[in-house]
Amino acid sequence: MKILFFGDIVGRAGRQAVKQILPQLKQEFEPDLVLANGENAAHGQGLTEEGAKEILAAGVDYLTGGDHAFALGGSEELLADASLPVLRPLNWPGDVAGRGSAIIIVGAKRVLLISLIGRVFMRHDFDDPFVRVKELLEDYSLAGQEQGSEKVDAIILDFHAEATSEKAALGWWLDGQISALLGTHTHVPTADEKILPAGSAFISDVGMVGVMDSVLGADKDIVIKRFLTQRLFRMDPALGRQMEINAVLLELDDKTGLAKNISRVRRIVYQDEVLV
Question: Which CATH superfamily includes the segment(s) 2-270?
């Protein structure tokens, strides 16, 4: 099985970049499943129903979330709509709308997708991601393994976290129990993609889909001004025609669900116009 996963999609320009590049990547890699982190897709913070449907119409099969999951008016309704393939972090505390995991049917195979968020350097007081994901994995296991009450053919975990140490620690802890841990949130692609000893794929951060001349997809002048003045000016997405697209391609063993390969996918595309 091949799975293509896009890092954080930032704003309208990022949505357009996915629409522009995905037909080419599908032809090149022939993925069985396309996933993306969509929590920055609406003007850099949050996700709207319109934005989600735009990304899904472009050919993405499911969207994961992060710390901006409830940033916008209408977020509760969006996440509560079971017909939309959109997740929020599994370990968001309290009784909140939405799902933190989902079973995706891919032909004759079943893929468990999990959205999880870290706690280190995060502003919110999230539930312990280690504990919550372990509780979930008590109910599921990869095909060919003994533990778990329900067998699935792949388990993909999007760990939306700031600290690389937290991501690495969770990856090692879950090695062999999941197909892949794919880090998101920092918007900077890391060069540490690998297959861990027990067979799980890992990367600290996939990177982003957004305007290249930016600070993590945000307007660079605003970010510089924030640093210089220590004032919280509104962070708008950057404007520009040159887009960076960061993703990873996973190749999984059809019998075990463990990873055979993980490779970074990076493309630079130019849009016809500046999208606000």
Answer: Metallo-dependent phosphatases (3.60.21.10)
Please give the backbone phi and psi of residue 140, each rounded to the nearest 5 degrees, phi first. Answer: -135, 150
Is residue 153 within 8 Å of 111, Cβ to Cβ?
Answer: yes
**pLDDT averaged over the chain?**
95
Angle at Cα 71 formed by Cα 70 and Cα 72, nearest 5°? Answer: 100
For 47-73, what is each residue's pLDDT tens digit?
A: 999 999 999 999 999 999 999 999 998
Q: Report if pTM > 0.90.
A: yes
> Is 185 one of the catalytic residues?
no
Per-residue pLDDT, averaged over 21-27, amounts to: 98
pLDDT digits (tens, 9 = 90+) for 140-175: 999 877 766 799 999 999 999 999 999 999 999 999
Cβ–Cβ < 8 Å for 64, 99: no
43, 68, 185, 187: the catalytic one is: 68
| Domain spans, the chain | 2-270
Three-state SS annotation for the chain: CEEEEECEECHHHHHHHHHHHHHHHHHHHCCCEEEEECCCCCCCCCCCHHHHHHHHHCCCCEEECCCCCCCCCCHHHHHHCCCCCECCCCCCCCCCCCCCEEEEEECCEEEEEEEEECCCCCCCCCCCHHHHHHHHHCCEEECCCCCCCEEECEEEEEEECCCHHHHHHHHHHCECCECEEEEECCCCCCCCCEECCCCCEEECCCCEEEECCCECCECHHHHHHHHHHCCCCCCCECCCCEEEEEEEEEEECCCCCCEEEEEEEEEEEECCCCCC
